[in-house]
Amino acid sequence: MGTFIGLTSSYLALLFGCLFFLYAVKYYASTILALSTLGRGKAAEAEPHTSPGDVGRDEPFVSIHLPFYNEVNVARRVIKACLSLDYGNYEVIVVDDSRDETIGILKEAGWRRPAPAVKFVHRRDRSGFKGGALGNAVRYMDPRTEFVVVFDADFIPPPNILRRFVTHFRERDPSYAGSDFLPDYDAGGGKGKTVAAVQGYQLHHLNKSENWVTRGVRAEFSGSYMVERVAAERYGGLKMISGSVFMLRADVLRRLGWGMSITEDWELTLRLYLEGYRVVYTPLIQAPAEIPTTIRALAKQRMRWAEGHTYSVKRYFKRVLGSARLTAREKLEFLYFSPYYLQPLFLLAGTLFWLVAEVNHRYPAFWSPAFGWSLTISNFLAVPLMGLAGIFLEGDLRVDFSGVLSFVALGYIIAPFQAYAALKGLLEPEEGTWVRTLKTGSITDRVLRLKLRGIMNWVRLRSRLPRFGFGAFLEVFGPFPVRQALMAASMVLMALPVLTGLSSLGLGMIGGG
To answer: Where are the strands (E) in 73-194, listed by range?
Structure first.
Protein backbone atom coordinates (compact mmCIF):
# COMPACT_ATOMS: atom_id res chain seq x y z
CA MET A 1 0.00 0.00 0.00
CA GLY A 2 2.85 2.38 0.84
CA THR A 3 4.42 1.75 -2.57
CA PHE A 4 1.13 2.45 -4.34
CA ILE A 5 0.50 5.67 -2.36
CA GLY A 6 4.07 6.84 -2.86
CA LEU A 7 4.14 6.22 -6.61
CA THR A 8 0.65 7.66 -7.17
CA SER A 9 1.55 10.77 -5.17
CA SER A 10 4.78 11.12 -7.16
CA TYR A 11 2.99 11.05 -10.49
CA LEU A 12 0.29 13.45 -9.29
CA ALA A 13 2.94 15.78 -7.88
CA LEU A 14 4.70 15.69 -11.24
CA LEU A 15 1.45 16.41 -13.11
CA PHE A 16 0.35 19.35 -10.98
CA GLY A 17 3.90 20.61 -10.51
CA CYS A 18 4.53 20.69 -14.25
CA LEU A 19 1.17 22.38 -14.90
CA PHE A 20 2.08 25.18 -12.52
CA PHE A 21 5.64 25.27 -13.83
CA LEU A 22 4.26 26.37 -17.20
CA TYR A 23 2.89 29.43 -15.39
CA ALA A 24 6.13 29.81 -13.43
CA VAL A 25 8.15 29.93 -16.65
CA LYS A 26 5.90 32.70 -17.94
CA TYR A 27 6.22 34.64 -14.68
CA TYR A 28 10.01 34.38 -14.68
CA ALA A 29 10.22 35.32 -18.35
CA SER A 30 7.84 38.24 -17.78
CA THR A 31 9.95 39.42 -14.84
CA ILE A 32 13.10 39.39 -16.97
CA LEU A 33 11.32 41.09 -19.85
CA ALA A 34 9.71 43.79 -17.69
CA LEU A 35 12.98 44.59 -15.92
CA SER A 36 14.67 44.84 -19.32
CA THR A 37 11.84 46.77 -20.96
CA LEU A 38 11.67 49.42 -18.29
CA GLY A 39 15.45 49.44 -18.42
CA ARG A 40 17.90 51.19 -16.17
CA GLY A 41 17.81 54.85 -15.42
CA LYS A 42 16.46 57.58 -13.28
CA ALA A 43 13.03 57.25 -11.77
CA ALA A 44 10.51 59.34 -13.64
CA GLU A 45 7.09 60.69 -12.90
CA ALA A 46 4.35 58.88 -14.78
CA GLU A 47 3.70 61.71 -17.19
CA PRO A 48 2.45 61.25 -20.74
CA HIS A 49 4.60 62.07 -23.72
CA THR A 50 3.08 64.79 -25.85
CA SER A 51 4.43 65.59 -29.27
CA PRO A 52 4.34 69.11 -30.74
CA GLY A 53 1.59 68.01 -33.10
CA ASP A 54 -0.82 67.60 -30.19
CA VAL A 55 -0.64 71.24 -29.14
CA GLY A 56 -3.75 73.10 -30.16
CA ARG A 57 -5.73 70.04 -31.22
CA ASP A 58 -9.42 70.01 -30.37
CA GLU A 59 -10.37 67.90 -27.39
CA PRO A 60 -12.54 64.94 -28.43
CA PHE A 61 -15.70 64.60 -26.37
CA VAL A 62 -15.32 62.05 -23.55
CA SER A 63 -18.13 60.44 -21.56
CA ILE A 64 -17.12 59.23 -18.08
CA HIS A 65 -19.27 56.38 -16.75
CA LEU A 66 -19.47 55.66 -13.01
CA PRO A 67 -21.39 52.47 -12.04
CA PHE A 68 -22.74 52.72 -8.48
CA TYR A 69 -24.29 50.15 -6.17
CA ASN A 70 -24.64 51.29 -2.54
CA GLU A 71 -21.52 53.47 -2.62
CA VAL A 72 -22.38 55.83 0.22
CA ASN A 73 -18.80 55.83 1.55
CA VAL A 74 -17.12 56.87 -1.69
CA ALA A 75 -19.80 58.43 -3.94
CA ARG A 76 -19.01 62.10 -3.23
CA ARG A 77 -15.27 61.52 -3.50
CA VAL A 78 -15.26 60.02 -6.99
CA ILE A 79 -17.82 62.46 -8.40
CA LYS A 80 -15.84 65.45 -7.09
CA ALA A 81 -12.66 64.04 -8.61
CA CYS A 82 -14.37 63.57 -11.96
CA LEU A 83 -15.68 67.14 -11.91
CA SER A 84 -12.17 68.51 -11.26
CA LEU A 85 -10.40 67.15 -14.33
CA ASP A 86 -8.12 69.27 -16.45
CA TYR A 87 -10.20 68.79 -19.59
CA GLY A 88 -12.88 70.94 -21.13
CA ASN A 89 -15.02 68.66 -23.27
CA TYR A 90 -16.59 65.85 -21.28
CA GLU A 91 -19.59 64.68 -19.28
CA VAL A 92 -20.10 62.44 -16.26
CA ILE A 93 -22.83 59.79 -16.19
CA VAL A 94 -23.56 58.04 -12.90
CA VAL A 95 -25.53 54.83 -13.45
CA ASP A 96 -26.92 53.98 -10.05
CA ASP A 97 -28.39 50.71 -8.80
CA SER A 98 -28.27 51.77 -5.14
CA ARG A 99 -30.81 50.95 -2.47
CA ASP A 100 -29.20 52.94 0.36
CA GLU A 101 -28.29 56.54 1.25
CA THR A 102 -26.29 56.87 -1.98
CA ILE A 103 -29.50 57.97 -3.67
CA GLY A 104 -29.72 60.98 -1.34
CA ILE A 105 -26.14 61.97 -2.15
CA LEU A 106 -26.94 61.96 -5.87
CA LYS A 107 -29.94 64.25 -5.27
CA GLU A 108 -27.81 67.00 -3.72
CA ALA A 109 -28.12 70.34 -5.51
CA GLY A 110 -24.37 70.90 -5.73
CA TRP A 111 -24.04 68.51 -8.66
CA ARG A 112 -26.11 70.68 -11.00
CA ARG A 113 -23.80 72.61 -13.29
CA PRO A 114 -23.63 73.49 -16.98
CA ALA A 115 -20.18 72.04 -17.66
CA PRO A 116 -19.16 69.39 -17.32
CA ALA A 117 -22.69 68.03 -17.42
CA VAL A 118 -23.54 65.44 -14.77
CA LYS A 119 -26.27 62.90 -15.51
CA PHE A 120 -27.74 60.54 -12.94
CA VAL A 121 -29.49 57.43 -14.22
CA HIS A 122 -31.18 55.31 -11.54
CA ARG A 123 -32.30 51.75 -12.28
CA ARG A 124 -35.11 50.06 -10.43
CA ASP A 125 -33.64 46.61 -10.94
CA ARG A 126 -30.12 45.24 -11.28
CA SER A 127 -30.59 43.23 -14.47
CA GLY A 128 -27.22 42.51 -16.01
CA PHE A 129 -25.45 43.83 -12.90
CA LYS A 130 -22.52 46.16 -13.72
CA GLY A 131 -22.65 45.35 -17.43
CA GLY A 132 -26.35 46.16 -17.52
CA ALA A 133 -25.73 49.49 -15.75
CA LEU A 134 -22.91 50.44 -18.14
CA GLY A 135 -25.11 49.47 -21.08
CA ASN A 136 -27.71 51.90 -19.76
CA ALA A 137 -25.07 54.66 -19.62
CA VAL A 138 -24.35 54.16 -23.34
CA ARG A 139 -27.98 54.96 -24.09
CA TYR A 140 -27.77 58.32 -22.31
CA MET A 141 -24.32 59.52 -23.39
CA ASP A 142 -23.93 62.62 -25.53
CA PRO A 143 -24.09 61.89 -29.31
CA ARG A 144 -20.78 63.75 -29.73
CA THR A 145 -18.96 61.17 -27.59
CA GLU A 146 -15.80 59.79 -29.19
CA PHE A 147 -14.36 58.03 -26.15
CA VAL A 148 -15.82 56.41 -23.03
CA VAL A 149 -13.90 56.15 -19.75
CA VAL A 150 -15.02 53.92 -16.86
CA PHE A 151 -14.09 54.30 -13.19
CA ASP A 152 -15.36 52.20 -10.31
CA ALA A 153 -16.64 54.15 -7.32
CA ASP A 154 -13.58 53.64 -5.10
CA PHE A 155 -11.12 55.23 -7.57
CA ILE A 156 -9.82 58.80 -7.49
CA PRO A 157 -8.91 59.84 -11.05
CA PRO A 158 -6.13 62.49 -11.15
CA PRO A 159 -6.83 65.81 -12.93
CA ASN A 160 -4.92 65.08 -16.15
CA ILE A 161 -6.07 61.51 -16.72
CA LEU A 162 -8.31 62.27 -19.72
CA ARG A 163 -5.49 64.10 -21.49
CA ARG A 164 -3.25 61.11 -20.89
CA PHE A 165 -5.80 58.70 -22.30
CA VAL A 166 -6.50 60.80 -25.39
CA THR A 167 -2.79 61.32 -26.05
CA HIS A 168 -2.18 57.61 -25.73
CA PHE A 169 -5.00 56.73 -28.12
CA ARG A 170 -3.67 59.14 -30.70
CA GLU A 171 -0.15 57.80 -30.42
CA ARG A 172 -1.24 54.17 -30.78
CA ASP A 173 -3.35 54.97 -33.85
CA PRO A 174 -1.42 53.71 -36.93
CA SER A 175 -2.26 56.96 -38.75
CA TYR A 176 -0.61 59.04 -36.04
CA ALA A 177 2.87 60.26 -37.02
CA GLY A 178 5.80 60.29 -34.64
CA SER A 179 4.57 57.75 -32.09
CA ASP A 180 7.25 56.68 -29.61
CA PHE A 181 5.17 56.18 -26.50
CA LEU A 182 5.48 52.42 -26.19
CA PRO A 183 7.75 49.85 -27.77
CA ASP A 184 6.51 48.41 -31.03
CA TYR A 185 6.45 44.77 -31.89
CA ASP A 186 6.27 43.05 -35.26
CA ALA A 187 3.17 42.11 -37.19
CA GLY A 188 3.02 38.72 -35.47
CA GLY A 189 2.15 40.52 -32.25
CA GLY A 190 -0.76 42.47 -33.68
CA LYS A 191 0.82 45.69 -34.97
CA GLY A 192 -1.59 47.46 -37.30
CA LYS A 193 -4.77 46.16 -35.63
CA THR A 194 -7.11 48.93 -34.58
CA VAL A 195 -6.88 49.87 -30.91
CA ALA A 196 -10.32 49.65 -29.30
CA ALA A 197 -9.31 50.29 -25.70
CA VAL A 198 -6.45 51.57 -23.56
CA GLN A 199 -6.12 50.07 -20.09
CA GLY A 200 -4.37 52.09 -17.39
CA TYR A 201 -2.82 51.09 -14.08
CA GLN A 202 -5.30 50.41 -11.27
CA LEU A 203 -3.11 51.74 -8.50
CA HIS A 204 -4.40 49.88 -5.45
CA HIS A 205 -2.71 52.17 -2.99
CA LEU A 206 -5.18 54.31 -1.02
CA ASN A 207 -5.32 52.05 2.04
CA LYS A 208 -2.32 49.80 1.41
CA SER A 209 -1.00 50.26 4.98
CA GLU A 210 -4.30 49.41 6.69
CA ASN A 211 -3.44 45.78 7.50
CA TRP A 212 -1.56 42.73 6.23
CA VAL A 213 -4.31 41.89 3.72
CA THR A 214 -4.12 45.28 2.01
CA ARG A 215 -0.32 45.12 1.90
CA GLY A 216 -0.50 41.69 0.26
CA VAL A 217 -3.06 42.73 -2.36
CA ARG A 218 -1.00 45.83 -3.17
CA ALA A 219 2.05 43.57 -3.85
CA GLU A 220 -0.10 41.31 -6.03
CA PHE A 221 -1.28 44.21 -8.19
CA SER A 222 2.29 45.52 -8.49
CA GLY A 223 3.37 42.20 -9.98
CA SER A 224 0.39 42.11 -12.31
CA TYR A 225 0.46 45.69 -13.58
CA MET A 226 4.21 46.38 -13.53
CA VAL A 227 5.44 42.98 -14.72
CA GLU A 228 2.81 40.73 -16.34
CA ARG A 229 1.03 43.43 -18.33
CA VAL A 230 4.19 45.29 -19.26
CA ALA A 231 5.63 42.05 -20.64
CA ALA A 232 2.41 41.19 -22.49
CA GLU A 233 2.42 44.64 -24.09
CA ARG A 234 6.01 44.10 -25.13
CA TYR A 235 5.53 40.71 -26.80
CA GLY A 236 2.06 41.39 -28.22
CA GLY A 237 -0.10 39.11 -26.09
CA LEU A 238 -3.82 39.47 -25.48
CA LYS A 239 -4.50 42.22 -22.91
CA MET A 240 -7.58 42.45 -20.73
CA ILE A 241 -9.90 45.33 -20.00
CA SER A 242 -9.90 45.27 -16.22
CA GLY A 243 -13.13 46.83 -15.00
CA SER A 244 -11.89 50.35 -14.30
CA VAL A 245 -9.37 52.98 -15.49
CA PHE A 246 -9.77 52.29 -19.18
CA MET A 247 -10.84 54.26 -22.26
CA LEU A 248 -12.92 52.75 -25.06
CA ARG A 249 -13.74 53.96 -28.55
CA ALA A 250 -17.37 55.06 -28.36
CA ASP A 251 -18.20 53.88 -31.90
CA VAL A 252 -17.00 50.35 -31.07
CA LEU A 253 -18.89 50.32 -27.77
CA ARG A 254 -22.12 51.51 -29.43
CA ARG A 255 -21.87 48.65 -31.93
CA LEU A 256 -20.85 45.83 -29.58
CA GLY A 257 -22.51 46.99 -26.36
CA TRP A 258 -21.91 45.64 -22.87
CA GLY A 259 -22.64 42.02 -21.99
CA MET A 260 -24.43 40.78 -18.88
CA SER A 261 -21.62 38.63 -17.48
CA ILE A 262 -20.54 38.97 -13.85
CA THR A 263 -17.09 39.69 -15.36
CA GLU A 264 -18.32 42.07 -18.05
CA ASP A 265 -14.81 43.43 -18.68
CA TRP A 266 -13.30 40.04 -19.63
CA GLU A 267 -16.33 39.13 -21.74
CA LEU A 268 -16.08 42.41 -23.70
CA THR A 269 -12.32 41.88 -24.09
CA LEU A 270 -12.91 38.57 -25.86
CA ARG A 271 -15.54 40.08 -28.16
CA LEU A 272 -13.22 42.96 -29.06
CA TYR A 273 -10.48 40.55 -30.12
CA LEU A 274 -12.97 38.41 -32.04
CA GLU A 275 -13.94 41.55 -33.98
CA GLY A 276 -10.29 42.14 -34.92
CA TYR A 277 -9.51 44.90 -32.41
CA ARG A 278 -6.84 44.94 -29.74
CA VAL A 279 -6.39 46.37 -26.24
CA VAL A 280 -3.19 48.17 -25.22
CA TYR A 281 -1.82 48.73 -21.75
CA THR A 282 0.30 51.49 -20.23
CA PRO A 283 1.54 51.91 -16.65
CA LEU A 284 1.83 55.67 -17.22
CA ILE A 285 -1.92 56.25 -16.82
CA GLN A 286 -2.74 55.68 -13.17
CA ALA A 287 -5.68 56.12 -10.82
CA PRO A 288 -5.48 55.13 -7.14
CA ALA A 289 -8.10 52.87 -5.62
CA GLU A 290 -9.14 51.14 -2.43
CA ILE A 291 -8.12 47.59 -1.48
CA PRO A 292 -10.41 45.01 0.17
CA THR A 293 -9.51 44.93 3.85
CA THR A 294 -10.62 41.45 4.96
CA ILE A 295 -10.07 37.91 3.74
CA ARG A 296 -13.84 37.46 3.52
CA ALA A 297 -14.25 40.45 1.20
CA LEU A 298 -11.27 39.43 -0.89
CA ALA A 299 -12.45 35.83 -1.21
CA LYS A 300 -15.91 36.93 -2.38
CA GLN A 301 -14.37 39.29 -4.94
CA ARG A 302 -12.01 36.64 -6.32
CA MET A 303 -14.73 34.00 -6.42
CA ARG A 304 -16.83 36.26 -8.65
CA TRP A 305 -13.81 36.92 -10.86
CA ALA A 306 -12.97 33.20 -11.07
CA GLU A 307 -16.52 32.08 -11.84
CA GLY A 308 -17.25 34.75 -14.45
CA HIS A 309 -13.82 34.45 -16.05
CA THR A 310 -14.03 30.67 -16.44
CA TYR A 311 -17.62 30.79 -17.67
CA SER A 312 -16.64 33.23 -20.44
CA VAL A 313 -13.62 31.06 -21.35
CA LYS A 314 -15.97 28.09 -21.74
CA ARG A 315 -18.42 30.17 -23.78
CA TYR A 316 -15.85 31.63 -26.21
CA PHE A 317 -13.09 28.98 -26.21
CA LYS A 318 -13.70 27.45 -29.64
CA ARG A 319 -14.45 30.80 -31.27
CA VAL A 320 -11.26 32.41 -29.99
CA LEU A 321 -8.96 29.53 -30.97
CA GLY A 322 -10.65 29.20 -34.36
CA SER A 323 -10.70 32.91 -35.19
CA ALA A 324 -8.45 34.21 -37.96
CA ARG A 325 -8.60 37.68 -36.38
CA LEU A 326 -6.41 36.79 -33.40
CA THR A 327 -2.67 36.36 -33.79
CA ALA A 328 -0.84 33.26 -32.58
CA ARG A 329 0.54 35.24 -29.62
CA GLU A 330 -2.92 36.43 -28.63
CA LYS A 331 -4.27 32.87 -28.78
CA LEU A 332 -1.41 31.59 -26.65
CA GLU A 333 -2.13 34.30 -24.09
CA PHE A 334 -5.80 33.29 -24.11
CA LEU A 335 -4.77 29.67 -23.41
CA TYR A 336 -2.66 30.96 -20.52
CA PHE A 337 -5.65 32.91 -19.18
CA SER A 338 -8.10 30.00 -19.56
CA PRO A 339 -7.28 28.06 -16.33
CA TYR A 340 -5.89 31.20 -14.68
CA TYR A 341 -7.85 30.89 -11.43
CA LEU A 342 -6.96 27.21 -11.03
CA GLN A 343 -3.22 27.78 -10.87
CA PRO A 344 -3.04 28.24 -7.06
CA LEU A 345 -4.74 24.84 -6.80
CA PHE A 346 -2.09 23.35 -9.12
CA LEU A 347 0.64 24.70 -6.84
CA LEU A 348 -1.05 23.58 -3.63
CA ALA A 349 -1.88 20.09 -4.94
CA GLY A 350 1.56 19.58 -6.45
CA THR A 351 3.27 20.57 -3.20
CA LEU A 352 1.04 18.34 -1.04
CA PHE A 353 1.46 15.28 -3.27
CA TRP A 354 5.21 15.83 -3.39
CA LEU A 355 5.35 15.87 0.44
CA VAL A 356 3.37 12.58 0.56
CA ALA A 357 5.80 11.06 -1.92
CA GLU A 358 8.74 12.24 0.17
CA VAL A 359 7.28 10.68 3.33
CA ASN A 360 6.72 7.31 1.59
CA HIS A 361 10.05 7.35 -0.30
CA ARG A 362 8.51 5.86 -3.43
CA TYR A 363 9.27 7.49 -6.77
CA PRO A 364 9.30 6.70 -10.49
CA ALA A 365 12.63 5.49 -11.88
CA PHE A 366 13.41 8.87 -13.41
CA TRP A 367 12.59 10.81 -10.23
CA SER A 368 15.27 12.29 -7.98
CA PRO A 369 15.05 14.35 -4.78
CA ALA A 370 16.95 17.15 -6.53
CA PHE A 371 14.30 17.35 -9.25
CA GLY A 372 11.44 17.35 -6.73
CA TRP A 373 13.03 20.04 -4.60
CA SER A 374 13.97 22.23 -7.59
CA LEU A 375 10.48 22.02 -9.11
CA THR A 376 8.81 22.83 -5.78
CA ILE A 377 11.13 25.75 -5.01
CA SER A 378 10.89 27.16 -8.51
CA ASN A 379 7.10 27.01 -8.46
CA PHE A 380 6.86 28.46 -4.97
CA LEU A 381 9.07 31.49 -5.72
CA ALA A 382 7.72 32.45 -9.16
CA VAL A 383 4.85 34.67 -8.07
CA PRO A 384 6.62 36.27 -5.05
CA LEU A 385 9.60 37.14 -7.25
CA MET A 386 7.28 38.78 -9.76
CA GLY A 387 5.71 40.79 -6.93
CA LEU A 388 9.15 41.87 -5.74
CA ALA A 389 10.04 43.00 -9.26
CA GLY A 390 6.79 44.96 -9.54
CA ILE A 391 7.36 46.76 -6.25
CA PHE A 392 10.98 47.44 -7.22
CA LEU A 393 9.88 49.00 -10.52
CA GLU A 394 7.52 51.23 -8.56
CA GLY A 395 10.44 52.30 -6.39
CA ASP A 396 9.03 51.13 -3.04
CA LEU A 397 10.84 47.84 -2.36
CA ARG A 398 12.24 48.77 1.07
CA VAL A 399 8.90 50.09 2.27
CA ASP A 400 6.61 47.40 0.84
CA PHE A 401 8.74 44.25 1.01
CA SER A 402 6.56 42.75 3.75
CA GLY A 403 3.59 42.89 1.41
CA VAL A 404 5.12 40.10 -0.68
CA LEU A 405 5.07 37.79 2.34
CA SER A 406 1.42 38.68 2.92
CA PHE A 407 0.76 38.06 -0.78
CA VAL A 408 2.16 34.51 -0.50
CA ALA A 409 -0.03 33.75 2.52
CA LEU A 410 -3.13 35.17 0.82
CA GLY A 411 -2.49 33.04 -2.25
CA TYR A 412 -2.72 29.84 -0.23
CA ILE A 413 -5.73 31.04 1.78
CA ILE A 414 -7.74 32.15 -1.26
CA ALA A 415 -6.73 29.20 -3.50
CA PRO A 416 -9.55 26.79 -2.48
CA PHE A 417 -12.22 29.48 -2.88
CA GLN A 418 -10.94 30.50 -6.32
CA ALA A 419 -10.67 26.88 -7.43
CA TYR A 420 -14.23 26.10 -6.33
CA ALA A 421 -15.60 29.17 -8.13
CA ALA A 422 -13.59 28.41 -11.29
CA LEU A 423 -14.90 24.84 -11.40
CA LYS A 424 -18.41 26.18 -10.79
CA GLY A 425 -18.06 28.54 -13.77
CA LEU A 426 -16.78 25.68 -15.91
CA LEU A 427 -19.62 23.28 -15.06
CA GLU A 428 -22.68 25.47 -14.48
CA PRO A 429 -25.16 26.04 -17.36
CA GLU A 430 -25.76 29.68 -16.34
CA GLU A 431 -23.59 32.20 -14.52
CA GLY A 432 -24.17 32.98 -10.88
CA THR A 433 -25.05 36.34 -9.37
CA TRP A 434 -22.97 39.43 -8.71
CA VAL A 435 -21.37 39.76 -5.26
CA ARG A 436 -20.54 43.35 -4.34
CA THR A 437 -17.20 44.34 -2.80
CA LEU A 438 -17.75 46.79 0.07
CA LYS A 439 -15.93 50.11 -0.23
CA THR A 440 -15.13 51.79 3.06
CA GLY A 441 -13.58 55.06 1.85
CA SER A 442 -10.51 54.45 4.00
CA ILE A 443 -7.30 56.27 3.03
CA THR A 444 -3.97 55.51 4.73
CA ASP A 445 -1.62 56.52 1.90
CA ARG A 446 -2.31 59.66 -0.10
CA VAL A 447 -0.53 58.61 -3.27
CA LEU A 448 -2.11 59.82 -6.48
CA ARG A 449 0.67 58.59 -8.74
CA LEU A 450 3.99 56.80 -8.56
CA LYS A 451 7.54 57.47 -9.67
CA LEU A 452 8.39 54.48 -11.81
CA ARG A 453 11.92 53.21 -12.37
CA GLY A 454 13.09 53.32 -15.95
CA ILE A 455 9.87 54.78 -17.36
CA MET A 456 11.80 57.27 -19.47
CA ASN A 457 13.41 54.32 -21.24
CA TRP A 458 9.92 53.01 -22.02
CA VAL A 459 8.85 56.40 -23.35
CA ARG A 460 11.97 56.92 -25.44
CA LEU A 461 11.85 53.46 -27.01
CA ARG A 462 15.09 52.41 -25.33
CA SER A 463 13.03 49.50 -24.05
CA ARG A 464 13.76 47.09 -26.90
CA LEU A 465 15.56 44.01 -25.71
CA PRO A 466 19.30 44.58 -26.22
CA ARG A 467 21.33 42.43 -28.58
CA PHE A 468 23.62 39.78 -27.19
CA GLY A 469 27.16 40.81 -26.35
CA PHE A 470 29.15 42.53 -23.63
CA GLY A 471 27.59 45.93 -24.36
CA ALA A 472 24.12 44.44 -24.06
CA PHE A 473 25.12 42.81 -20.77
CA LEU A 474 26.21 46.17 -19.36
CA GLU A 475 23.02 47.82 -20.65
CA VAL A 476 20.83 45.39 -18.70
CA PHE A 477 23.04 44.49 -15.74
CA GLY A 478 24.15 47.90 -14.62
CA PRO A 479 25.19 49.09 -11.19
CA PHE A 480 21.78 48.34 -9.62
CA PRO A 481 22.22 45.14 -7.57
CA VAL A 482 18.49 44.64 -6.94
CA ARG A 483 17.63 44.61 -10.63
CA GLN A 484 20.58 42.33 -11.35
CA ALA A 485 19.65 39.96 -8.52
CA LEU A 486 15.99 39.72 -9.60
CA MET A 487 16.88 38.98 -13.21
CA ALA A 488 19.58 36.47 -12.29
CA ALA A 489 17.26 34.72 -9.80
CA SER A 490 14.54 34.48 -12.46
CA MET A 491 16.94 32.91 -14.93
CA VAL A 492 18.30 30.38 -12.42
CA LEU A 493 14.90 29.39 -11.00
CA MET A 494 13.44 29.00 -14.49
CA ALA A 495 16.30 26.76 -15.63
CA LEU A 496 16.84 24.72 -12.46
CA PRO A 497 13.90 22.25 -12.75
CA VAL A 498 14.67 21.70 -16.43
CA LEU A 499 18.33 20.89 -15.76
CA THR A 500 17.65 18.65 -12.76
CA GLY A 501 14.79 16.97 -14.62
CA LEU A 502 17.00 16.15 -17.60
CA SER A 503 19.68 14.91 -15.23
CA SER A 504 17.19 12.70 -13.40
CA LEU A 505 15.81 11.35 -16.66
CA GLY A 506 19.30 10.49 -17.85
CA LEU A 507 20.19 8.72 -14.63
CA GLY A 508 16.90 6.86 -14.69
CA MET A 509 17.54 5.60 -18.22
CA ILE A 510 21.07 4.49 -17.25
CA GLY A 511 19.75 2.71 -14.17
CA GLY A 512 16.97 1.08 -16.19
CA GLY A 513 19.51 -0.08 -18.79
So the answer is: 90-96, 117-122, 147-150
